[in-house]
Recover the amino acids of this structure.
């Protein structure tokens, strides 16, 4: 299981990315944070995009991400 979160550095999304990382790691799931720009906050599970803030217009909920893990 491989989760990557790409977040916008100029937008200040690092705290939100770290919040997700901590919550997922507490569930025993490893997370890689990737710096990005242009308002990106994308979550990838096993190299498949499962959430895009750009497409949804909001941040995901932790449950939305964990539901994609099975």
């Amino acid at each position: 299981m491989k989760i990557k979160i790409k977040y916008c550095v100029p937008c200040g999304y690092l705290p939100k990315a770290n919040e997700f990382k901590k919550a997922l790691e507490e569930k025993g799931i490893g997370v890689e944070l990737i710096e990005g720009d242009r308002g990106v906050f994308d979550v990838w599970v096993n190299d498949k995009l499962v959430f895009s803030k750009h497409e949804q217009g909001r941040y995901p909920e932790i449950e939305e991400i964990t539901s994609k893990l099975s």
